[in-house]
Amino acid sequence: MRALYGYDVAADLQPRCRYDEVVRALGGACELVTKAADIGPGLRRAFAAGVPYLVNVLTDPEIAYPRSTTGV
Questions:
Q1: Where residue 8 falls among pLDDT bands split at 50, 70, 90?
Q2: Rounded CA gap, 16 and 33, in Å?
Q3: How far is the C-alpha of 45 from the C-alpha of 26, rounded, in Å?
Q4: How many CA atoms lie within 13 A of 24 on its CB side?
Q5: Degrees to nearest 5, angle at CA 61 with 43 and 6
Q6: What's the predicted TM-score (pTM) here?
Q7: Which of 13, 12, 31, 33 is nearest to 21 (CA)?
Q8: What is the Cα 13 distance to its own chain's centre?
């Protein structure tokens, strides 16, 4: 939302925050993903886990992501 409005609209999340460590501390299943190539395998592990599972994908808040899924 920064690209559109110049500020975080819904939430001001902490960059590089380890939400996966919070979930782990609470007894949950989770993992950290830092490379785009690891998102798919992380999601497959999450769906196969059979329990609530967090895949924490670190992104660069300065890079706007595409809003269209055309071609995906």
A1: low
A2: 11
A3: 19
A4: 9
A5: 135
A6: 0.69
A7: 31
A8: 11
The candidate with the shortest Cα–Cα distance to 4, out of 69, 72, 65, 60, is 65
**3-state class percentages of the chain: helix first, strand second, coil last, to nearest 5:** 35, 15, 50
What does the chain come to in residues?
72
For 19-60, the pLDDT digits (tens) are 899 999 999 999 999 998 999 999 999 999 999 999 999 887
Both tokens assigned to 25 = 């501390």
Contact in structure between 31 and 20 (CB atoms under 8 Å): yes
Q: How far is CA 67 from the centre of its chain?
A: 16
